[in-house]
Amino acid sequence: MQFPESWLREFCNPSLSTRQLADTLTMAGLEVEDLRPVAPPFSHIVVGEIKEAVQHPNADRLRVCQVDVGQGALLNIVCGAPNARVGIKVPCALVGAELPPGEDGKPFSIKLGKLRGVESQGMLCSARELKLSEDHGGLLELSPDAPIGKNIREVLNLDDTLFTLKLTPNLAHCLSVYGVAREVAALTGAPLKTPAIAPVAAKLSDVQPVKISAPDLCGRFSGRIVRNVNTKAATPQWMVDRLARCGQRSVTALVDISNYVMFELGRPSHIFDLDKIHGTLDVRWGKAGEQLKLLNGNTVTVDGEVGVIADDRQVESLAGIMGGDATAVSDDTRHVYVEAAFWWPKAIAGRSRRYNFATDAGHRFERGVDPELTVEHIERITQLIVDICGTPDTACGPVDDHRVKMPVAQPVTLRVERAAKVIGMPVTQAQCVDVFRRLGLPATQAEGQVTVTPPLYHFDLQLEEDLIEEVARLVGYEQLPHTPPLAPVVPTLRTESQRSPFAVRRLLAALGYQETINYSFVDERWEHELAGNPKPIKLLNPIASQMGVMRSSLLGSLLQVLKFNLDRKAERVRVFELGRVFLRDASVPDSHRSVAGFAQPMRVAGLAAGGVHSLQWGAKERAVDFFDVKADVEALLAPLQAAFEAAEHPALHPGRCARVLLGGKAIGFVGELHPRWRQGYELSATPVLFELALDAVLARQVPALREISRFQAVERDLAVIVAESVTHAALMQAIASAPTAGLLRNAVLFDVYRAKPGQPAGGLAEGEKSLAVRLTLNSDEATLTEEQIEGAVQAVLGTLQAQVGARLRA
Question: What's CA 558's distance to the chain center, in Å?
């Protein structure tokens, strides 16, 4: 909402500067979004009257004007404006004047000069040259009563400031200059000047018949007939200027009067051409298929959920939003019907958005407009019509007021103790009562309580919390004490055997993954399908229906990210997340870092889909598979050696899923997404995922000094035949457990051989395979002898035979 400061100060003029006033409003919840001057700085520009205007002797489009600026002698000024004529008063820039800066940012100085050989002693200005508007069609014509020689800034009140407020929906009573002034008076204690609205005497008995068929749409409808008005009358310049400074252009006198009262007092109204109304006006809900051409030129179709004002023939107006074209006033209008009504906010809310437009009237009515003052506002409109559009024959009928369903104010009780607790600082009952007195809210007191019966224009006061907010606003948010948090702060120091979460993030980024951050609130479906969690932790007040439970796994969030990117034609996706999950655990106690009954461990999860490599030419293109992501997990855990065993997980492929073990303890899973979920989530690529406990990933071995052997290491290759079911992990575990007296330093599998089906060869039977392993042996004490080497090799063979049923391949 935009308005000039000067208009506000007519109702309430506190002894505050413009900036202080803006800060006071902002701290009270009426955010001042913008402050800007009505006009940019300029100087030495006064009111001048053209006394003579003759053709320039050397130019067809120029005129030589004699201008009176109150200095005694007339000024000779050359002007090219098409409307330069004798008798008009215009802004005149004297020699030495500075006009507003141009595109180069520098002020434009007026100097004595010659134009086509004729001396010019100043410059006559247009509105555009003064940066008052974009109109450059000619000179800015001033009011005939503007005093000659007076500073133009004083004449046009250009040393004014435009306030732009960003109001929240609960501040409907501030959607007018008077409403804001009422708040300023309460905040500053400055006196409030209530506009005196004198009733206009009725000279006629004419009344427009009105019927309210929908009390749930309109609670009060007031109207008045005014006959013999001059609709061609010009809107006074003061009203045009005020409307312009509220962001509203002038249309016609009657429309301007209606808009002016809306900005002044906050009530939208409508003026009908009385001769175009057929019979009785019926305030009702629309009927399916009814159409209405609006004042903006749009034709809309209404239904039973949109309120209308109709006569005996057709729909004439969209209730509380916009009038219809059929009854619009025009230059031929002689008799008008002025309407002001109370529309229930719920009956207006959202209706204009159905038709893809918004109006000032709808904006106000859907938030709530005072139902008590419809008659007074009609009197104000009537007086302005008589003053501006009146003729000797102008006559008014009585105000016809229909009250069918008025809102009833409900008392609201504030507990002083609770107010102090919510606000966060001590407040007394006397302070609360004083706040309500300043706001004009009738209040009664009891022990520790204040009961307020809010006036009907305060649609925002319905709960105790609403009254607490009023107390906080008026006492002043800046009075809140700066209280440091009292929660226990227990520093947690990372031990040397742990790396930081940032190191994990950096390592995953080096592996080609990008970090994502997702909500901890997820779809309950994810928990059932992807986490196998039949009883997730539900939120009491979720921010969205699809975010109703706390996640117990990070996999659903990553799949959502994958889906988002695949839908946007991303061919290769690698993402990870470090985040907290939420599990039910009765063993968790209540402490400063935990909530009883709920475990909140940190996990790290990753997802890879698409090609193994980005677009390149050095290797054959292939899709990422289980072993690629398994290698990433091993790199993430290095230098610790992880073991992998076949397992099942609700989200993963039953034959391509492994449990990750570290030191014999399960820390997570890695595997390909289950085909059922790939199809269910409509994924064009098959992702491979992993999820690990972050504590296990952060663990690392503390570096320890170890002497490097000075003696030559020995390598021996063994080829053993084992059953097809023997895994690499089982083989390596057996070799590591062999009693080699500490001589075995490393073992690497370097070959796997299988016979062709139906053609046994190399001593392999059906269902067997050959594994070749290179053993590295060494001693820190002396060079190994053949006996020591042979003994260690035989110990490995014996262990393999005992544990995995291996035999030496011939």
Answer: 25
743: tokens are 């001589």
Q: Are strands 449-452 and 315-318 parallel, antiparallel or unpaired?
A: unpaired
Q: Which residues contact 27 (CB under 8 A, 6 or more apart)?
A: 476, 477, 478
Per the model's pLDDT, the better-predicted residue between 253 and 134 turns out to be 253
Pair 68, 223: CB distance under 8 Å: no
Q: Give the Cα separation of 714 and 789 in Å (integer).
A: 8
Q: What is the pLDDT of residues 86-123, one digit of tens each?
A: 999 999 999 999 898 877 777 788 989 888 888 999 99
Alpha-carbon gap, residue 91 to 39, rounded angstroms? 14
What average pLDDT does the structure give for the chain? 91
Encoded tokens for 714: 């020995």
Instruction: State the pLDDT at residue 760.
Output: 67
- Alpha-carbon distance of 154 to 159, in angstroms, equals 7
What is the C-alpha to C-alpha distance for residues 474 and 108, in angstroms, rounded to an integer?
47
DSSP-assigned beta bridge partners for residue 339: 223, 270
Q: Report the pLDDT value the prediction gives residue 681, as an integer from 0 to 100.
A: 87
Strand pairing category for 43-55 and 63-68:
antiparallel
Q: Higher pLDDT residue, 591 or 461? A: 461
- What single string gives the DSSP state of each residue in 541-569? S-SSTT--EE-S-SHHHHHHHHHHHHTTT
The pairing of strands 161-166 and 412-415 is unpaired
H or E stretch at 307? strand 307-310
Structure tokens at 14: 């506190």
Q: State the DSSP code for 174.
A: G
User: Are 546 and 567 a contacting pair, CB within 8 Å?
Assistant: no
Amino acid at 541: N
pLDDT at 292 over 80: yes
Q: What is the pTM of this model?
A: 0.67
Residue 688 near residue 609, CB atoms below 8 Å = yes
Query: Which tokens in the block code for residue 483?
Result: 């209280």
**C-beta separation of 325 from 334 below 8 A:** no
Query: Exposed/middle/buried for 593, CB within 10 Å: 0-12, 13-18, 19+?
Result: exposed
Contact 370, 288 (CB under 8 A): no
How far apart CA 601 and CA 691 sit, in angstroms, is 12
CB 378 within 8 A of CB 272: no
Structure tokens, 703? 């570096």
- Report helix, strand or coil for 675: helix
What is d(CA 678, CA 653) in angstroms, rounded to the nearest whole number? 10
Q: What is the CA radius of gyration of the chain?
A: 43
